[in-house]
Amino acid sequence: MDSQKKYPQHISFEFFPPKTEEGDKKLLQTATQLTKLNPHYFSVTFGAGGSTRDRTFDTVLSLAKATGIPLAPHLSCIGSSKAQLLELLNQYRENQIDRLVALRGDRPSGDVAKGELNFAYELVQFVREQTADHFHIEVAAYPEFHPEAVNPQADIDNLKRKFDAGANSAITQYFYNAEAYYRLIDACEANQIEMPIVPGIMPIMNFTQLSRFSAACGAEIPMWLSKRLAAYGDDKESLQAFGIEVVSDLCNQLLSAGCPGLHFYSMNQALIVEQVCNNLHLPHKST
Ligand code: FAD
What we know:
- The protein has helices at about 20-35, 55-65, 80-95, 120-130, 150-165, 180-190, 205-215, 225-230, 235-255, 270-280; strands at about 10-15, 40-45, 70-75, 100-105, 135-140, 170-175, 195-200, 260-265.
- With about 290 residues, it is of the alpha/beta class.
- Strands 1-2-3-4-5-6-7-8 form an eight-stranded parallel β-barrel, surrounded by five helices.
């Protein structure tokens, strides 16, 4: 973990672009609430195959204006042409957005154009070629390995390619086993990657939804946790209280080990991530 200890411990929150006006209003309230925790930035996801291209852009601009917090739009290359990607990059630049989360993207369902870039490292190369150092670029990292990686070393080689292409830091897929993150950092150090790798933290709000996400993205819910969560059945309040305890413990372990901050998958909800953050020993936590 030594390579990570030189970086400041920031927090950031991820949102998805809402589909309705009501969702927009709720997100604005959520972001306003989370602004009090003094986040380093907010990020906004990009739907599979570019399906939320306009909504991501609009959400980024409206949150930047309303909160004054730096915004990091996610941008994925699957399903977008180079011309479409460049148009978006230029629009973000014109609107003083200077962070990006660069991804290959989830494969969209249905018959959607593949795009001209196949992997995230090619997108990072493209962004650097077109916009030099304008953007601070985050990429994705996988403590429990990307489901399509042919083996663990291939996953690290891929992360290294993204940094070699010009990424500044990485955010991980979520995990509930801190050891998986420590081992990722050890593997990075063994492969001369010393850039910040920020743990992605998924709050526990709903067991069915979490199980579905985890099956899709390859993140493990450990057996002890899965059994405890299943036992709450319909008792959402007790499940969430237990989830806050588990996730706060995980975050405190990671912070004590020296991780460079935490990135919360907020699911556009403030309450639970806020309670987790209040349980953390963060140097810049609002008092
Ligand atoms: P890549 O880094 O390109 O890797 C994808 C796979 O290809 C890996 O298995 C890698 O080992 C393999 N690979 C890479 N290069 C090669 C090569 N040359 N030859 C063979 N194999 C290769 N998805 C969205 O659609 N929208 C989002 O907003 C979004 N946000 C995310 C945010 C975070 C923090 C994370 C962790 C994930 C996010 N995802 C998002 C999901 C992500 O798009 C998927 O996990 C996707 O399957 C992989 O994206 P990547 O950027 O990691 O791809």
